[in-house]
Amino acid sequence: MSHADSAKFQLASDAGQTPEKPRAAVGVGSGDWLAGLSSRSLYYRDEWCAIYHADCREVLDEMKCHLVMTDPPYGIHGGRGSMSTNRGRGNYTSDFDDTPEYIRDVVADVIRRCVAKWPTVVTPGNTNMMRYPQPDSFGCYYQPAAVGLQTWGNLDAQPILYYGKNPTKRNFGTPCSYTLTETPEKNGHPCVKPLGAWKRLMASVSVEGMTVLDPFMGSGTTLQAARELGRYAIGIELSEEYCEIAAKRQQQRMMSFG
Ligand SMILES: C[S@@+](CC[C@H](N)C(=O)[O-])C[C@H]1O[C@@H](n2cnc3c(N)ncnc32)[C@H](O)[C@@H]1O
Question: Could you give the CA distance from residue 62 to residue 93 in angstroms, rounded to a whole number?
Fold first, then answer.
């Protein structure tokens, strides 16, 4: 069932709440930012975000944004971490094969299409990062407490690939790497990005009022981060189950507005 036209669809303003307004209206993020967006495959929307239940390959060309920020599948069968094991990790319930071939043939191609249109930031995971187009810049999440193992030692960093130019036009003094000590929330998705870490990255590559697109949305951490930072966001996700988790996260956030 789509939330887009359902009774559950509700603007924060309808609930008598005061949504955080971005201070600066910037380009496509300003005014009625949803007006130009496609309604095809729209699953949920509110004042700050839109969720598309779709294969991102099919709807990408209809999207408008200032930048792409995404944490795609890692090509390691739903697991996170090292070559050692997927022990304790749930696999995706979505209908795709999380294999190196999928990264090479599908994910890298989507990223190539994004890069052709927008500044793009990707966390590709370690194992298959070489299957991506060459980035213009790179950084990492350094995880001092990581216990994953690779052939030369602990797997204690996750790459961040940057394409194009930082849309904030601030590169001096902006870090490209971050220390990651936070554990992600448990929300039913097998590999949720830690919200605080994702917010720090988003804050360094965007400004208030911008629209951030995540073509591999998962449980919607990008949308959550965007809302909390005064950015608009669009997420695309193959799995209806994950769209539902993401929509519920957004609704819970709206309900807890102070
Ligand atoms: C690593 S997860 C993203 C997790 C997210 N960062 C979070 O915090 O919840 C990648 C997601 O991409 C989705 N996915 C895979 N192929 C896709 C496609 N072609 N179009 C849209 N989503 C896709 C998977 O279902 C999975 O939920």
Answer: 26
